Amino acid sequence: MAGLGALCLVLPGRIAYGENELRWPTLAEVLDATEKPDSLGDLGNLGSLGSLDTIDIPETPDIPETPETLKTPHIPASPVIPDTSANTDSRIFLRHFYASLAEAGERKVRVLHYGDSQIEEDRMTMQIREALQKRYGGQGVGLMPLAQTIPTRTTRQELRMNGRFTAPQQGPKRYLVYGPKRDQRADGLYGIMGQVAVMNDSIVTGSETITAVCKPQTASAHYEQWKIFADSSVHYTTSGDTVHLQGRGAVYAISQESRTGVIVDNIPMRGCLGLVFNKIDSAQIASFCREEHVELIIMQFGGNAIPTNKNPGTIKGIVSGLREQVRYVRSCAPEASILFIGPSDMLTQEDGEWKTYPMVPYMDRLLRKMTMEEGVAYFSLYQWMGGSGSMKRWQESGLAGSDGVHFYRSGARKAGNAVADWMLEGMEN
Amino acid sequence: MELLHHIFAFNSESPLLFTQFYFWAFFAIVYAFFALIMSSQRSAVSHQRLHLRNIYLLFVSWFFYYKTSGLFLLILAFVTLSDWFIAGRIKSAISHQQSAISKVLLALSVVIDLGLLAYFKYAYFFTNAINDIFGTGFRVFDLFAYIGNGFSEAGRFSVDTIILPVGISFYIFQVISYTADVYRGRIQPVKNILDFGFYVSFFPQLVAGPIVRAEEFIPQLYKPFHLSRRWFGLAVFWILNGLAKKIILSDYLAVNLIDRVFDNPLLFSGFENLFALFAYSLQVYADFSGYTDIAIGVALSMGFYLPKNFDSPYKSKNPQEFWRRWHMSLGRWLKTYLYIPLGGNRKIGFGTYFWLSIIALVSAALTGWWWQILVPFGVFMAGVAVADKVFKGAKDSKDHNAISPRRKLLYSNLNSFITQVLGGLWHGASWNFIIWGGINGIGMIVNKIWREMNWHVRFGSMTALTFGLMALDAVYNLPVWRLFAVWAVIVWVGTAIRYIYWLIIHEPSATSHQPSAIINALGNAWAILQTFTFITFTRLFFRSSSNLDPATANEVAWATAKNMVNQMGGAWNNAVIPDFLWEYRWVVAMFVTGMVIHWLPTNWKRRYRLWFSAMPLWLMVIAACVAIVVIYQFVTADMQPFIYFQF
Predict the structure, then answer these.
(1) Considering only Cβ atoms within 10 Å of each terminal Cβ, which end of chain B, N or C, has fewer?
(2) Of A226, A257, A288, which closes a domain?
(3) Is A36 within a domain?
C-alpha cells in the first residue's frame, strides 16, 4: 500500500508512449475515488449484492437553469425544455400537422417516424402512435418490412417461403439504404422505408411464394385493412392476419392500418446517421407522401455520430449533412411538417468513470440551431433527460441499458410519452 | 467533521467493495493495528492476545458490514445471537438425552434463519407467484421498516420495498451449518459469543463467500497466530490474482461487449451473440472467483485459511465434475445439508416426493399447463415407484443391505435434481434461476445415464436424437430447433469418431486396453469442450438485471434468452465474423487469454504461485506495483466503440 501510495505521489496522471498513454491516478483522484460506485457485475446476480439501494425517480420535474452543469441529473416525468425560447417555439413548425389532425375523422393522417436503433422494436413510436390514435382515431401499426429482422412488441411477424417457416435473414434479398455496400442498390428504389425485399431476385422463373403473418400483440395494433406497397409484378392476397405474395419484384412495405385517423409508422434504420434520405428515389418518397397523406415526418438521428467523432468540426459537418437531408425530404413532401428528435444523453468510460460524450451537448446545440433555421420543430431528448450525466441516472433506475446509449423499453416508453405529450401540448397552446 | 462522517457513516452509494480504493485504505489501517496486536510476542502469542485479536476483527467486520449494508447489521447480529444461543441449548439437550427437544430447537433455528432469508430475498418472488397463480394483487410490505418507523407506514424507512441485505445468503447458510453440526455432534458449540460472532462476520468472506463451515474455521480462532513469509507471498498473489480476474477479465469484457449484447441481442448477429454468451461464461467465473480469491488472500494475510471456492471449473469433463469445481463451498453445503438429508444415493423419502411435487405443482400453476405437466408428472412418479421395485431385486447377492447400482442411480438423480433446482433458487429469486437450476439438474442426469450406456447404445441414441432434431428443424425451421440440431450434429460427429475408435481398438478379451496419451488428451479435450458449451448455454438463464423490479427482471431475462436463441439460430451471419474479430480484437484477445490461463495445467499454476510467493520482498513489491499499474490501465481503458455489423 505504501509503495502504491508513493507511486501516486511520484507519477503524473498520464505518461504518453507513442500514440498510447500509461495512466495512473494522482493522489487527488485517489482521495476522490472513495465516492465512485463500483459496477457490481455478476455478484449482483448471485443474490448477495443485488439491491444495495432503492431506485428513486422523482416524478415532479425540476427545471434546471443550466442543464449542462447539473451536478445531480434528474429524470423528469414530463418533458422539460430548459431553453424554452428554442424548443417551445419550434412547435409552431408543426402547425400544418396540427391543422391536418382536424381532418383525421374523415381521412388518413400519416406520420413517418424515422430513427436509428433507439426506435427499434417500435420503441418510442408506439407511445406516439397510441397518444395520437387515442385522441384522433386511427388503427394499426402501419408500415412493416416484408422480412422483419427486428421483432417488435406490437406485432408478431412470421415469414414463410413456399409454405415453410423462414428466418427473416434467410428470406428474400433485402436492400437497405442504410446498410453496408453489399446490401445497397444503385437505382435508389428503396421505397418509403429505406429498405426493400425483392422476391425471386435470383430466380428466373419467379416461382417463389411468400407468406407473411402479422399478428397484433397489443390492443392498439388492431387494424382495419391491409395495404401492400409493391411493384405491380407482385401479386398478393390477404386473409386475416396473413398476406400471400407471389411474382417477381420489389415489396417496399406491408401495412396494417385504418382508412381514417392517424397512422404512425415505425421506421428504424440501425446504425444510421440520417444522411441517407437523398439516396432514396425522390419520386418514390413524393408519391407515397402525396397519396398516403403524410402530414408529419419525424427524424430521430444524431446518436450514431457521437461515439466515433471527437472533433467538433466533424460534428458540424454531420449536422450540415443533416440539413441537406431535411431539405431533400422537404422537397419531396413540401406540405408535411418535420420534427427532428435529437440524440439522448450518451455515456462513455473515461478514466474508469462513466461520462457524457463531450460531443452530445455540442451536437444538440447545432441541431437546435439548424432546425430553427430550416423551419423544423426540435425536441431535445438530451435536455429533456436532464442534460449531461442523466443517462447514468437512467441506467441506475433501470430505464437504460448498460451500454450508456440505448433505452430499455421502460425508458423508451417514458421518452415516447414525453414526445407525444409535448406535441399534443403544443397543439393546445 | 464532514470527513469523519464520510468515513464512518453508511452510504448506500459507496459500499465497501474489494475493487474500490476505500476498501484498501480501510484494510491498510485494519492491518496496521492487527500487526500491532500480533507483533509484541514473536514466538508464541498468548491466549489473551488471540482473544483481543478476535474481538478486534469482530468489530472491524461489523464496521465493514455497517459501511456496506447500514442498519442491516442488526440482522447479522440477530442471527449470530439466535444461532449461538440455540446451538448451546441443543448441546445441553443432547447431553441430557432430550432428543425431542434438540430436534425442536434445530427446527426453530432453521425456521428463523430460512424465514429471514425468505423474507428479505424471496418476498417479491413469492408475492408475484401468488399473484400469478391466484390473480391477486398483493404487494410487499416491509414489516421491519414499519417497526423502524414506530409502527407507521410513513417515516424514515419506506414500507413499500424490501431491500436485500448484502451477503445474507452467505451468512445465513453459515449459521445453519453451525447449528446443524452442533446437533449432529460434529462440533462443540462455541462458548464465547464474540468468537462465534467473529466466525459469522469475518469481513473478507462476509458478503460473497466462501461459505465457511464452523468446523473448518472455528478451530483457527484458538490456534497460535502464524504467518510465514511464503503464506504472506501467497496472500499477495491471491489478492492480485483476484483483482486481475475481476477487473481485466470480468469488468473489461462486460463493459465492452457482454452487457451490450445481453441488453440488446437483436442488435447483434448470431455469431456475436454466441461469442458474448461464451465470454459471459468467463466473466461470471472471473467475477465471482476473482472476488473470492481476494477474500482468500486478505484472510490469509491475517493468518486465516479460507477454503478454496473454485478449482478451474471449465476444465470439467462432465456436469457433475463441474459442480464439484464451481462454487465449491456452496456445493459442499448443499450436499451436506440438502442432498444427503434428502437421501443422497441411498434412499428417496418424503422430502424427495414433497419437493418434486412442489416443483411440478408450481410449474403447472404458473404456466397454466395443468394437465400437460401434472399428467406426465404422475406417470413419471409411477415410473419411479415401479423402477424402485424392479431395481430392488437387483441388489448385490453378497450383501443383503447393499443398494443396487441402478437404484443408487435413480435415488441420486432425483435428489440431485431437487438440489440443483433449489440451488438455482439460492442464486436468485426469480424463475430464470429456477429454470437454470433445472437445466443443470437435467444435464447431470443425462450425463450420468449416458455414462452407464455402452458404446453401441450411445451411438444409436445419439444418432436417433440427431435425426430427430434435424427433422424438427426441417419441418418447423425455427431458430431454437436449428440451434439444437447444429449442436446435436457436432456432438454426433464427436460420438461417431469415438465410437469408431472404440470399435477398432475394442477387443473383448483385452479389457485392460489403455488408450494412448494423445487419444486420452483428445478425449478429455472433447469432454471439456462439451461440458463448457453446455454450462455456457445454461447461462442464458443465469443473468438477471438487479436494477429492475423482480417481475420485470424476469420478463427481461426471458426475452433476452429468447432473443439470443433467435439470433444464434436464425440470424447467424458469417460475413460479420472477420469484421467483428478485428474491431473487437482487444475483447477477443482478453477472452482467449483468459481461457488459455484457465486451461493451463494445475501444476503450472501451482508452480508460478509458489514462485511468486518465494520472491524476495523487494521483487514482490515491484511485481505487485507493476501488476496494479497494468490492472489500472484496464480500469481506465477507453470504451470499445459501438459498431453495428448486423443490419
Answers:
(1) N
(2) A257
(3) yes
Looking up cell 433445472 gives B438
Cβ contact, residue pair B28, A117, below 8 Å: no
pLDDT (tens digit, 9 = 90+) per residue, B518-565? 888 999 999 999 999 999 999 998 886 655 566 677 778 888 999 999
Give yes or no: residues A28 and A148 share one domain.
Answer: no
pLDDT at B330: 93
Q: Are residues A117 and A15 in the same domain?
A: no
Catalytic residue among B6, B51, B400, B427: B427
Query: Would you call B350 an interface residue with chain A, using a CB distance cutoff of 8 Å?
Result: no
Domain check: are A20 and A133 in the same one? Answer: no
Instruction: Look at chain A and count its residues.
Output: 429
∠B26-B29-B34 over CA atoms, to 5°? 120
Q: Fill in the amino acid letter for B579.
A: D
Same domain, A297 and A319: yes
pLDDT digits (tens, 9 = 90+) for B54-106: 999 999 999 999 988 888 899 999 999 999 999 999 999 988 888 889 999 99
Whole-angstrom distance, CA of residue B234 vs CA of residue B159? 46
Residues (pLDDT < 70) of chain A are 1-88, 202-206
Provide the β-strand partners of residue A256: A142, A226
Q: A64, A178, A41: which is closest to A117 by C-alpha?
A: A178
CATH of residue A405's domain is 3.40.50.1110
Domain that holds residue A123: 73-138+259-429
Q: Does A1 fall in a domain? A: no
The count of structural domains within chain A is: 3
Could you tell me the three cell numbers for A422? 409535448
Instruction: With respect to residue A268, please indicate whether it lies within any of the assigned structural domains.
Output: yes
Task: Yes or no: say if A151 and A169 are a contact pair by the CB < 8 Å rule.
Answer: no
Q: DSSP readout, A317-375? A: HHHHHHHHHHHHHHHHSTTSEEEEE-----EEEETTEEEE-THHHHHHHHHHHHHHHHT
Asked whether residue A105 is assigned to any structural domain, the reply reads yes
C-alpha cell at A258: 385504418
Chain B nearest C-alpha distance from A181 (Å)? 11
In angstroms, the separation between the Cα of residue B82 and the nearest Cα of chain A is 21
Q: Which three cell numbers stand for residue B80?
A: 449470530
Q: What angle do CA A152, A303, A375 make, to 5 degrees?
A: 100
Determine the 3-state secondary structure of B475 from DSSP.
helix
Domain boundary among A225, A257, A289: A257
First to last CA, chain B: 57
Q: Looking at the complex, does the CB of residue B20 fall below 8 Å from at least one CB of chain A?
A: yes
Q: b/e for B535-545, b at 16 or more Cβ within 10 A? A: bbbbbbbbbbb
Same-domain pairing of A116 and A176? no
Q: Which residues of B touch A50 (CB under 8 A)?
A: 164, 428, 546
ipTM of model = 0.73
Interface contact A45-B552, CB threshold 8 A: no
B427 has catalytic annotation: yes
**Distance of residue A335 Cα from the nearest chain B Cα, in angstroms:** 32
Q: Chain B, 222-281: which have a CB under 8 Å from a chain A CB?
A: 246, 250-251, 254-255, 259-260, 263-264, 266-267
Looking at the structure, do residues A27 and A170 belong to the same domain, yes or no?
Answer: no
Helix (H, G, I), strand (E, B), or coil: what is residue A143? strand
Q: Answer yes or no: do A292 and A348 share one domain.
A: yes
Within this chain, do residues A381 and A317 fall inside the same structural domain, yes or no?
Answer: yes
